[in-house]
Amino acid sequence: MENTVYDVIIVGAGASGLLCARECARGGLKTLVLEKEQLPGRKILASGNGRCNLTNARVAPAFYHGNEKLLSTVLSQFTYENCRRYFEELGILLVEEELGRIFPQTGKATAVLEPLKLAAQESGAEILTGQTVSKIKRGKNFSIATQTNQSFQARRVVLACGSCAYPQIGGSAGGYELARALGHTIIPPRPTLSGLVLKENFSRLTGVRAQVKLHVQNAQTQGEIIFTNYGINGPAALNASGVITRKLDGGNVPIQLNFLPEIADAPAFFNARLKLFSHRKPKDFFAGVLHESIANLLIDFKGLRKNKPMNEQSPAAVKSAFETVSNWPVTVTALRPWNEAMVAAGGVNTREINYNTFESLRCPGVYVTGELLDVDGQSGGFNLHFAWASGFAAATHLTQEK
Ligand SMILES: Cc1cc2nc3c(=O)[nH]c(=O)nc-3n(C[C@H](O)[C@H](O)[C@H](O)COP(=O)(O)OP(=O)(O)OC[C@H]3O[C@@H](n4cnc5c(N)ncnc54)[C@H](O)[C@@H]3O)c2cc1C
What we know:
402 residues, FAD/NAD(P)-binding domain, Elongation Factor Tu (Ef-tu), domain 3, seven-stranded mixed sheet, 12 helices, binds flavin-adenine dinucleotide
């Protein structure tokens, strides 16, 4: 094997690397994938709670943080329709769930990983596992050394090493080091798609779910949050985490929770309700509108007297309570750490990447794809879509320049 010169060596048998390998091999390139774990695609298997939310019918740059030019180019080259057809042609039945999220019909992530891996191998790609790439040397060909002291030669290299998120299933900073050694700058990775740690103590709400609009400065997300012993999690919190993680360098981040996301003017709504129910005690007044535990917290927070009807409360306290329901201020002090963050914001600087081909502008012949790049998407299938799309774009260029 030491004398073989591969057309392309792909570092990382994750989402991006496997799809790229299949396309390179299918295009006639002698292709080797080196994977440090004993099994390929561990994050694919963990994704979507083991169900693999592999893309989204709404894929568009608006669902991502990152270089807009690169995103609009790659997402128009490999659209949602392209992605769906690609996986259907691998023999996978897909179903669409709410908010455009696409899953394999079996409800198992193996239904995505296995056909993709098989297709790569059937096209002729070799996959070697248990091989951590530790060094890439440029020369006439690239010389790729692994931690087990093996050495491989290739004309081209694809770095598809993913990010340092979720180290317990193989996330590592190794890809950043390889890219840095080849001349790239790394935007410091930060956890994203992770729970929000709040300064305020909401532990009495642990386990409570609520539909909210979550405002963070000029951005907002909408959906479910789940209160936890540290703060909040759930789709609306996760989707806000991409904006918040970038602001946390400047200190704590104030956010507001609107517990009546479908009501345009909460104070007006409650004032109208007062006309009907002013004889009720606060807990009964809010029943049917707010979760009981949230109502109790609001009553304590605003100093409403529990045993008095609404029409005997202080008008200022009532006004403040009504306003707070749609504009509850809380403070994010941190995101949950890497072992709970599904994705990394940051990574290889995309200004150093050709956004049509994903070839490095710093080290020609090297390609960088997937989550190793400074691109991160919201939850809902967008991150896997980017991993597939960028792997596809790199393979398209590699096979064309053959
Ligand atoms: C728990 C969890 C749930 C998720 N759910 C979803 C979801 O439902 N939908 C969605 O779109 N996204 C989801 N994501 C995110 C998604 O899984 C990733 O964005 C995606 O896998 C990134 O693809 P990638 O190919 O860039 O990296 P990865 O899939 O992480 O693959 C990188 C591979 O490179 C290998 N590697 C790294 N360094 C080296 C080295 N030096 N030598 C050899 N091999 C190396 C790694 O072991 C790994 O196998 C989830 C992530 C997690 C952690």
